[in-house]
Amino acid sequence: MPNGANTHCPYCALQCAMSLTPAASTQPGSGPAPAAKALPVLEVSGRDFPTNRGGLCRKGWTSASLLNHSGRVTEPLLKGSDGVHRPVSWDQALMLVTGAVKQTREKYGPDAVGVFGGGGLTNEKAYQLGKFARLALGTSRIDYNGRFCMSSAAAAGNRAFGVDRGLPFPVEDLDSASVIFLLGSNVAETMPPFVQHLKGARDSGGLIVADPRRSATAAFTGDGGGIHLQPTPGTDLALILGISHVVVHEGLADTQYLEDRTSGYTAIVRSLAGFWPERVQSITGVPATLIRETARRLAHGARNGGSYILTGRGVEQHVDGTDTATAAINLSLLLGLPGSSRSGYGTLTGQGNGQGGREHGQKADQLPGYRKITDPAARAHVAAVWGVDERLIPGPGLPAVELLKSLGKPDGVRCLFVHGANVAVSAPDANAVIDGLRSLDFLVVCDFFLSETALEADLVLPVTQWAEEEGTLTNLEGRVLRRRKALTPPAGVRSELWLMARLAELLDAPSTFSDDPETVFEELRLASSGGLADYSGIDYAMLDRGEAAYWPYPAGSSGTPRLFLDGFAHADRRAVMVPVVPGKRPASSAVVLSDTQPLTLVTGRLLEHYQSGAQTRRVAELDAAQPEALLQIHPSTAAARGISRGDFAVVSNDRGEVLCKVELSNTIRTDTVFLPFHFPGAGSANRLTEAATDPVSGMPEFKSSTVRVRKATAI
Ligand code: SF4
To answer: Does the keyword Metal-binding apply (predicted)?
Structure first.
């Protein structure tokens, strides 16, 4: 019987607050639900909270229907030689995993075991997974799908500010802004309740959106006289440099701020010399007049009410993503925005715990507290908390794309654990990823559904869902929130903390692993203490009282809702301005097709679906609204290829082929097509994206792939 709880949405980083109450059909005396239709056992209602103010999107409203979904995995499943998954007991499952790990380590060494985590795991699970990989499995090879999400913005933030926290200010600060410049973010579809925070700027003509498509968010700019910049995909960096050029050359920069709070300004001015608006227009396709107007409005806003620059995946998911985010930060520094109480720069984290997931040890190069794994002091601190010799903590592992490329290879990963990720759909060059999964000696997938990745697994382990567990998550503002248990999980399901604790015992791990979330959080507090993401002053009791807890929150402090007010996190308290200019894109991203009119493919999200769609495609209402991938294409581009409304098209390049229906749209450029990445199989957009990565962050190129498009003649 469900008990209900106040908790937060299981999906995106806005972490909208919701209440879960027993559904009428599950309350005593209401009688059984009709056998043919599994009605949700909990009812969802929006709860007042600063990020959502009671609002939820379609995904949030329908999230409870997955808890008792008929496709839920409720017992461990072992794949037989015929390829069919059949139930086994938990004892058998644990023995199989233990045997596979030991055998792999003996045959190939500990780094042949790998772990792929997820940005939806709670802080407790993310922390424990990092510790489990390094101590129980003894491998350096752990990374997570957050690498695909905002690693480039994180790298740029660390470089400029000395620390990366998605939004270094509360979301509510945006309400009073005069100007908000959104670069590559379609919040109207990805996190609709966020739009209310844009209203003030939008109504006064201060909303500026850069997006190759006239997305739902870009369309808002038409309401109040805002600006939509529609650059050629992959030219965002040049666009930002063009705006920065105007700021410098029209005397709009905040020179006092630059002198007092930054270093590197002179080199930035030199680097901008070649990016005058008319030249940038020729690179990006954005009219020089709009480039100038954007710079002027941002500068005017900074002096009158506040200006904010916010980046999203559209500008970050590129092979030059770190440089593009760096350019956006430089622009914000030129205008004096970061570290002001009414202006700022931020990046809009995507996944539910994308922020916390990267702070506590899931990343290949980090230890809890956002510590560098190569830093001797950090290693000594964490080793002391774990009660082990620091030499037992392996060094840096492989970033996500490299880890996936290594699957089944000599010196690569031969036995892989996947937690909370569906890489068969969400990773770039998905065909190659699926081949890699199939070449493994042993694949263990922890999930609550048979996702496309779970279908490839030797062993599927059923784990608890969001409403069945206690824990914490850290939202896009760096605010730590409580996830609360509202429902008893099905009998055969276990929490990942329990799983890691049992396996650690069986593998004779040199440290203890608790299966109690609060106990794990208490250990996380100690491990993070003194780090950049210090959680030592946060505990469950204060979160339960509703206190706002923004990190860094050292013990004895009151947390940090607004970062950088007194200085940046570098030793000299200054922000570092790093000059960046567009470079040569890697050969694989400039694939030459025999087609005389190649197009650029942009991938992205839809209102109804979340990430790989493993969850939302199973929600009846969401599936009915968006059941398949549609190729968005401009009518004239389609007509040139003999494609009409309702036709099927083949989208292809040297990595793969996608077959999907077309959706004619005037909102897209004529040289660009768009595919959502939520769908598997024939409609899987990531069959076409490439695994080339940003050299600084390891971010793959999701937003600019060269493709050919033709009408499908037979289906
Ligand atoms: Fe959930 Fe994000 Fe929708 Fe809010 S905006 S209800 S957190 S998916």
So the answer is: yes
User: What is the CA(56)–ligand 1 centre distance, in A?
Assistant: 6
Predicted structure pTM score: 0.94
ipTM: 0.99
DSSP state, residue 12: B
Beta carbon of 59 within 6 Å of any ligand 1 atom: yes
Distance (Å, whole) CA 539 – CA 546: 11
**Pocket flag, ligand 1, residue 51 (CB < 6 Å):** no
Burial of 392 (0-12, 13-18, 19+ CB in 10 A): middle
How remote is the CA of residue 367 from the centroid of ligand 1, in Å? 29
- The two tokens of residue 564 are 């950088």
Q: How confident is the model at residue 188 (pLDDT cuts 50, 70, 90)?
A: very high
Please state the atom number of ligand 1 nearest to the C-alpha of residue 194: 5
Question: In sequence order, which ranges of 174-320 are alpha helices (DSSP H)?
Answer: 187-190, 199-203, 216-219, 236-249, 255-261, 265-271, 277-284, 288-303, 313-316
Which domains can be identified in the chain, with CATH numbers?
5-66 (2.20.25.90), 77-149+364-544 (3.40.50.740), 154-348 (3.40.228.10), 587-711 (2.40.40.20)
For ligand 1, atom 4: residue with the closest CA: 16
Cα–Cα distances in angstroms (integers) from residue 493 to residues 73, 76, 454, in the given order: 8, 8, 15
Q: Ligand 1 centre from 484 Cα, in Å? A: 17
Gap from CA of 351 to ligand 1 centroid (Å): 10
Nearest CA owner, ligand 1 atom 2: 12
